[in-house]
Every structure is written in structure tokens, then in C-alpha cells.
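Posting this for the archive.
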Amino acid sequence: MKHLTFKAYTDGKYGSEIGSYTVLLDPNTFKFDKEIEYAEDRQLGAIGGNVRFVRYKAENLSFKFTIDCTGIVEGTEEKDKVYDKIQEIEKLLYTYNSDGHRPSYVLVQYVELLFKGQVKKMDVEYTLFSDKGVPLRASVSLTFTGYRCGEEERKKFSKQSPDMSRLITVKEGETLPYLCHRIYGDSQLVRQVARFNNLIGFRNIPAGTELLFPPLKKS
């Protein structure tokens, strides 16, 4: 039987592994959250209206597992300490990675489950202590938010329908007005696209920048 395993990477293409951790007591349940973002498109005073597809939000994966250092779990050793296990997981998944300049990208594997993402939340609850107050058992809750590199995103948004969002990598010499004209047929939509991508301005966008173009109507 394969145990739940985390593998941490410095890059979003999951090519440079920096470490891994295997959970000896597997979770009983896994929870997936999926969400679609829509934008209301209705006239002033209208009771109802159409909604436009904007994008698929990142999928979330959450579960809870137990770390037990009482000696009853197969695979544990007498020297194992709960605090050490928690710190190992935190360092691998949660702590800022100096090589990647961010928390690590994580590959979660369990039997047929394969989830690519990054830690969104980590909760630890100590549930059993020795006579000296040393923790012997802890419950760890983790939530991951999905992550795909630009290449995978481009595959997802490969459809050219105006009703679909598209991820575009800015090339040398391209400007946002030019891209808006190419995609929407209207260069006047630059401010809306800039706001959607949280850009302070839309001039001199560096080549290689990835921008998401949502479904927009001509002005």
C-alpha cells in the first residue's frame, strides 16, 4: 500500500525537487473544492440578467492526518519526536524557500491521487502528551491550492472562443493595446484588462509577462 507523500520543488514546473515527506497514518478523507467565477452582466434596474464566464478558480485540496510517536505505529522509531516531524513538514511545505524565493511548489501523491499546488493553510493540534508534557501525537490539517505553470495554463485556455479566458505571454515589441485589438478587436479595452491583471499601468509591459484576457465586450 502506498502512503501519502509530499514532494517539494523550487520551480513551478516541478523539476527541481528539494525534499519529500511520507505520512505513515493516511487520511480518512480528502476534500476537493472547485469554483467557477462569473460576472453579472445586467442593465441598471433589471431584476435578473445574464452571467458571463470569467475563469476557473484554482482547485483546493484539503485533508487531515495524524502524527503518532507513541511507538505503536509501524515505521516509527523510539527517537522520533512529534515536534521534529511538525518542523520537518513546515520547513518542506510552508517555510519561505530561499532558492525559489517563495514557499515551495508541492506535489501531493496518494495511490492514484496526483495534485500539483502550494500550501494555503496549515493547522496543527497536539492531542496527546507524556507525563513530562512532551507531545506524543498531533493532528495536522493542510489545505493546498492548485498551481499550473504557464505552459499548462495555455493548454487549458487554448480555445479561441471570445467567451473563454485566454492566457497570453507578451512577446518582444507587443503592447497591451495591440493585444487587446488582436484578441477583442478593440484596443480601448486596455484599462479593463490591466485592472483584471492587477497592473498599475499598461505601458512598457516586459516581454515574457503572462496576462489573462477575460471575456470582454467591445466598448
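Helices lie at 82-94, 150-156, 176-184, 190-196. The domain at 151-213 is CATH 3.10.350.10 (Membrane-bound Lytic Murein Transglycosylase D; Chain A).
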